[in-house]
Amino acid sequence: MPTLNHYLLLSAVLFAIGTAGVFVRRNLITILLSIEIMLNAVNLTFVAFGRAMGSADGQIIVFFVMTVAAAEAAIGLAIVIALFRHRESLNPDMFTQLKW
Amino acid sequence: MILFYVFAAVAVGASLLVIAQRNPIYSVLLLIASFGALSGLYVMLEAPFVAVIQIVVYAGAIMVLFLFVVMLLNAPHEETEADERRHILLRSGPLRFGAFLAVVLASELGWALTQGGESGAFAGGATTSVAAIGRSLFTDYAFAFEVTSVLILVAMVGAVVLAHREKA
Q: Nearest CA to CA, how far is A98 from chain B (Å)?
């Protein structure tokens, strides 16, 4: 049977992949997707710890994380659309000025 | 145990491909595959409610939102620059720092978890029922639940305001 450590290790690997994606990619959509990978790695940790401690609280936190992730995705994508209208680009290096 | 390794391999492989893809549409579709594998892991963790909302809310709603935006923006491909050929760790600036940080994070966490000693096997607990989650959600976490509904409302209004095309 997989133990708690297996799940924590998998979650660490997924979180590292998400972190690498945020730093390495030059596309706003892929950066948002990398943030979703990180959120899911954390969700896996919550559920694994909740299972280890025999409580349902871990799953409830996951519920809240998912609602916040939905709000974040909606706002982030709206900002991406607004930025794309200005510059016709998704490269974050194009958006280095606060005002134009 | 084999099932765990299969799901873990699919999740990690799909996530790596999400990062490696040039076309955002493939990235979104691969991330949905990764979420499906995670949902299988939640079932193995005796958390059927989370497994179901992972599919319905995450893969079904949030990822479709991403897909809509990718197709709306006509999915411009990432520009390949001259230094794209070189290895990430050899490039200058924040890229090298970020890649280095990710490698350090992964190796540190792996080291910490293998040093644990105790294997941390799960006790043979019962499956958390949806009824128990609902009862807890509407008693102990009732305030957080209501605040979440306000957050969703604010996010909805904010998204409409941000994406609205002003008449110029």
A: 16
